[in-house]
Specification:
By secondary structure, the chain is of the alpha+beta class. It is built from five helices and six strands.
Length: 174
């Protein structure tokens, strides 16, 4: 009897979780929505590129993520440096509409990632967003990379050029 009660209580919540996951999965923005957002927010991307390059030139190569809670550390969080706090404040205003989930700067130069959605877990999953001045680009082939054509069983990466050094970026790791 207890098993039936538990099953009765758990099944609806499991079903609701599955439905919410499916809605989230299938409602994620894809190439056309990212193109539209880019075209309708040119100032955001100009400012983001400017902030990324300025930060890298002033403070040298480093790894930076905004918001900082995206990659929580295994131990106590290190305090943010003054330059990172200033950049945090600038990005908070630029990303206030919530379309871009997080921004990362890595290495030297002016490369910046503005991630719209990310479902990676332990190195597997998918990421889609924008990349500014990527170190390497990957051709976009519609027959292979369009949403309905992607092979999720193999590694897949593409960059689709926009303007002013920006690209749409997608990466899948099975």
């Amino acid at each position: 009897m207890l098993k039936k009660i538990l099953l009765f209580l758990l099944l609806p919540s499991a079903f609701i979780m599955l439905v919410l996951w499916l809605l989230t999965y299938y409602s994620r923005p894809d190439v056309s929505q990212l193109q539209d957002y880019f075209e309708s927010h040119p100032q955001t991307f100009r400012q983001l590129a400017l902030k990324a390059c300025d930060s890298q030139q002033r403070h040298g190569p480093r790894f930076y993520v905004y918001p900082p809670a995206v990659y929580p550390s295994s131990g106590p969080a290190e305090p943010r440096s003054a330059p990172d706090l200033a950049l945090d404040q600038a990005l908070a205003g630029l990303l206030s509409d919530g379309f871009i989930e997080f921004v990362s700067l890595e290495g030297s130069g002016c490369t910046a990632h503005a991630i719209v959605w990310d479902s990676t877990f332990y190195g597997e999953g998918q990421t889609m967003g924008y990349v500014y001045q990527p170190v390497k680009t990957f051709d976009y082939i519609a027959e292979k990379h369009a949403k309905g054509q992607r092979n999720y069983q193999s590694e897949l990466t593409f960059t689709l050029p926009l303007t002013d050094g920006w690209y749409i970026y997608y990466h899948n790791v099975p």
